[in-house]
Amino acid sequence: AALAGYATTVHDVSRTQLDDAAAALRTRTDKMVQSGKLAAGDAEAAHARLLFSTDLGTAAPSADFVIEAATERLDIKRHIFATLGHLTPRHAILATNSSTLGSSKVAEASGRPAQVCNMHFFNPALVMECVEVVRHPDTSQDTVDVTMALARRMGKSPVLINREIPGFVANRLMGAVQKEALALLTGGVATKEDIDATAKKALRHPMGPFELMDLVGLDVIDDIARATHAETGDPADAPNELISALVKDGRLGRKTGTGWYTYA
Ligand SMILES: NC(=O)c1ccc[n+]([C@@H]2O[C@H](COP(=O)([O-])OP(=O)(O)OC[C@H]3O[C@@H](n4cnc5c(N)ncnc54)[C@H](O)[C@@H]3O)[C@@H](O)[C@H]2O)c1
């Protein structure tokens, strides 16, 4: 947002997280300047537009648009949306970056459900182009239009998702590929190495499905499956036994040095 010219406040309850965020943003813009993707002056101007605060009351009263990206817990998010409903100007749009919680779950708490939607970025947000804008049944057309326009001003390619559905579009597509990859492995059709090689060499995916699962974190994938299954009750959404076993073993992927693969 700051790179797109907006005065931006980054809020977190943890000062340490804010310090880490400030340092991480500095590292990222330094790299962009070094590689010629960003002018040094533009980077400095963006940093000058950023404020970091643990006090929501500092930023909220002048905010036109809020993107909530706090811990993936409904009670925390509902509390934040209720607070924002009191603190922000009447016209402000309140978006959630949640990957799994549809904005209808927090809309009522805000007291202005028509001005609430999901604005779902992908990791790392400065690099990945897609933003999923997801409307809930009471999201107004104005809210959708402004959120899509804001994403474009941020240099993103937003896509509109007309109906809340677990996983939205990107994670559903990724989930379908993962599910098929796991079925092929379990059925003895091919090794995980050959399945990954096929995805890369035949379909030009930058990573194979097993490599990608290791990157995301097998615990995260297991958690998402549990949450989705709880919501849909569809046996096809149930957590995968092979992944659950790896998680139980502490093999969570790259972050623990071992998952589907072992990392030096
Ligand atoms: N990690 C990803 O790749 C990714 C991608 C897209 C969307 N998301 C979504 O973004 C959100 C955050 O994910 P994450 O992986 O960064 O989680 P995280 O648990 O790493 O970070 C959550 C942050 O929220 C802060 N927080 C907790 N309570 C708060 C409160 N009341 N007010 C303000 N800040 C508070 C925590 O201090 C922490 O810094 C989730 O909704 C997630 O679904 C994550």
TrEMBL record:
Family label: Belongs to the 3-hydroxyacyl-CoA dehydrogenase family.
Organism classification: Bacteria, Bacillati, Actinomycetota, Actinomycetes, Micrococcales
A Pfam short name: 3HCDH_N
Protein name: 3-hydroxyacyl-CoA dehydrogenase family protein
Key word RNA-binding present: no
Organism: Arthrobacter wenxiniae
Residue ranges constituting the 3-hydroxyacyl-CoA dehydrogenase NAD binding domain according to the UniProt record: 1-162
All residue ranges annotated as the 3-hydroxyacyl-CoA dehydrogenase C-terminal domain in the record: 167-263
Site positions per UniProt: Important for catalytic activity: H120
A biological-process GO annotation: fatty acid beta-oxidation
